[in-house]
Amino acid sequence: xxxxxxxxxxxxxxxxxxxxxxxxxxxxxxxxxxxxxxxxxxxxxxxxxxxxxxxxxxxxxxxxxxxxxxxxxxxxxxxxxxxxxxxxxxxxxxxxxxxxxxxxxxxxxxxxxxxxxxxxxxxxxxxxxxxxxxxxxxxxxxxxxxxxxxxxxxxxxxxxxxxxxxxxxxxxxxxxxxxxxxxxxxxxxxxxxxxxxxxxxxxxxxxxxxxxxxxxxxxxxxxxxxxxxxxxxxxxxxxxxxxxxxxxxxxxxxxxxxxxxxxxxxxxxxxxxxxxxxxxxxxxxxxxxxxxxxxxxxx
Amino acid sequence: xxxxxxxxxxxxxxxxxxxxxxxxxxxxxxxxxxxxxxxxxxxxxxxxxxxxxxxxxxxxxxxxxxxxxxxxxxxxxxxxxxxxxxxxxxxxxxxxxxxxxxxxxxxxxxxxxxxxxxxxxxxxxxxxxxxxxxxxxxxxxxxxxxxxxxxxxxxxxxxxxxxxxxxxxxxxxxxxxxxxxxxxxxxxxxxxxxxxxxxxxxxxxxxxxxxxxxxxxxxxxxxxxxxxxxxxxxxxxxxxxxxxxxxxxxxxxxxxxxxxxxxxxxxxxxxxxxxxxxxxxxxxxxxxxxxxxxxxxxx
Lengths: 299, 299
Description:
Two copies of one chain form a homodimer.
Chain A: H1 2-12, H2 16-27, H3 33-38, E1 48-52, H4 59-70, E2 76-82, E3 108-114, H5 121-133, E4 140-145, H6 152-156, E5 161-166, H7 174-184, E6 187-190, H8 198-209, E7 220-222, H9 231-246, H10 250-267, H11 273-285, H12 291-298
Parallel strand pairs in A: 1-4, 1-5, 2-3, 2-4, 5-6, 6-7
Helix pairs in contact in A: 1-2, 2-5, 4-9, 5-10, 7-8
């Protein structure tokens, strides 16, 4: 435990090797990980910015452009969350090639997180890892979803500020996507905004956003991430939203979700899919499988 | 409880009014809902077919075309699952207008399910509702995701057969989407396949699918759902996959996920977000908020 106290001290000094070790510890639930999480100072409030949106919207390119704009003056962490597949535990895409120019930059820490495969467990793990990253003196932490994007809404429940990245082609889909997206987005970013359809798309999106009567006016920002156009405005909006959160009830909602996920993960800690599988196989072979019988025996 | 036994009897006779009442009971956790679920006969094996894919791929139109092909000889249930938003509890989109021509057909039962808003709770609720629907003598049950599509992978863990619907435009995204989608898809359906880019897209997708070494060879099917072209082949593939499942280990995996979600929902039953919110507000105002302190007190 002394070595973990030492790790925590190094974390607070922004030591990347210690940070990487602490993340691995939490990710794999190595011995001492409980102690680590419970002994982190809780006074850090680094903004966590979720970058989400459909595949192909240019999320990675946008993050790259944000890094480009920030790294000279700020320390930035990027977590790439790969929802992967529930049937392929721990699969790691992790080819964050487009970001590689910043891999070695002293102000940048980049880490790919594979989904642990557990439906419902990904959120808790991400929350735990973010608690660790928040200790390491970053000015911004970006959590970017990679791949299919089914965890869009999940990330939104964890990030302080959720940026939804879209491309103009999706124009006729705005109406379809309204339901969920409208409510998770704190900031809309229309990437590849140099395309012909961009203005119509931005106009449609803006009119939908203005139907929203919440206390935060969701901005719709145009950018061309490959050319670093519009990136400054995105950063400005992120800073503005961070200030907004200080007085907002949304902050409480984020904490509630955090607590809920962590409680759920703890309560389910002794329930293992492999054990359930064994029980089901046995019961099926004995001809006495009963869904709720098994559920009740595990509750 | 006698009235619930009566409800179960009527369900087994395929009475739609009873089915609707039973679903409402489970959806809203009305008194007796536990008794209902625990007293359903467990011998039903109606295939549950998940229809998922990005917004605009034509999922509803495909379901409509499947209904058109099936209803003369088969009883079909359609559940439209609207993931809605975690911040907008119980919101119901539910404008299943495109399917309205079958609303009154005696062989069709259509129901929109709003997300209960609880992250992690949607799966358990859907599983419970499917248990009920499976009692009512259907030949096919379709569970279609509506809206943003963040629950794609969740549905995949619940359906016996997961159909992923895509459109040719997504051509250059095939590679991006590979990770998650490849592994949840039991059947790929390329809709709007009369478009120019369709053949290239199908070829790309097929070559990716063939990299897969699982025991089930995932078919890539072309269709034009608006014109009922290719629908018969989709049904054929669904039937083939249903037969495949009988001898596959995938069936056990589906049961494991079911049990896991139901256990999780039960274990979290007494944890309410509103209570957590109250506790956080109190602790913040007293200046003694501690994340893991609160988590541990609730575990």
